[in-house]
Amino acid sequence: MRMDRYFFRCAVGLSLAIGTAGCSAGHGGSQAGTGETGTVSVALTGTAASGTPYHLANAVFEITNFATGLDTVISSDDPVLKVDLPPSIFPFDYNIALQDGWTLNAVNPDGSETPATATLLQNFISFTIKSQRTTPVVFPFQAGSEVVTMGNGTASVTIAVDDTLIDDFEDGDGLLPPISGRNGSWFVFNDGSGTQTPGPGDPIVPQVVDTSANFVFHMTGTDFAPMGVPLPDGTSSFGAGVGANLKYGPSGTVPYDASKYAGINFTFTTNSAPNLLLNVAFAIQTSATTPVENGGTCTAGCFDGFGFSGTVPPGQFSFTGGFTWDQLFQQGFGTPATFDPATIMSIQWVVGYINFGQPASADDFDFTLDDVAFQASFLSGSSSTGPRGGPGMQGGGSVDAGPRPLLEGGPVAGRRSWPSR
Question: Is 394 helix (H, G, I), strand (E, B) or coil?
Answer without folding.
Answer: helix
